[in-house]
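WARN no homologs supplied; continuing
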Amino acid sequence: MLYQLIADLLLVLHLLFVVFILFGGLLVLWRRWWVYVHLPAACWGVLVEFNQWICPLTPLEQSLRSAANQGQYSGGFIEHYIMPVLYPQWLTIEAQIVLGSVVIVVNLAVYGFVLWRLKRSRQGESSP
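OK structure emitted
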C-alpha cells in the first residue's frame, strides 16, 4: 500500500514536472529567479524527447509499483487518467521529436511574452 501511494505521488509529480516544462516560464512574470529553475528543466525535457531517453522518474515509479506487487498500469483514477498522458501508446520516435519541438515552440512563445511584458513594464516606469 505504501509503495503504491508513493508511486502514485511520483506519477503526479511527474505530470506536474511536464506541465512545468511547458508553461513554467510564466512563473518568471511573478519572480524572475524562476528562469534559473525553468530553463534547465525545459532543456532537460527537450533532450529527453529528442534523444528518446527515459526520464529517471519512470523506472523509479515502475520499481515502486513492482514492490507494491501491482501489475501493469491499471486501476484507479491516477492510472486511468494520468498515466495515458505521460505514457501514451502512440509514442514513437517521430512523436517524441514532435513533442520536443512543441516544448521549444511553447517556451519560445512563453519567454517572448515574458520579455514583452518586462519591456512594457520598464517603459511604463521610465515615462514621466
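The chain has a mean pLDDT of 83.
OK
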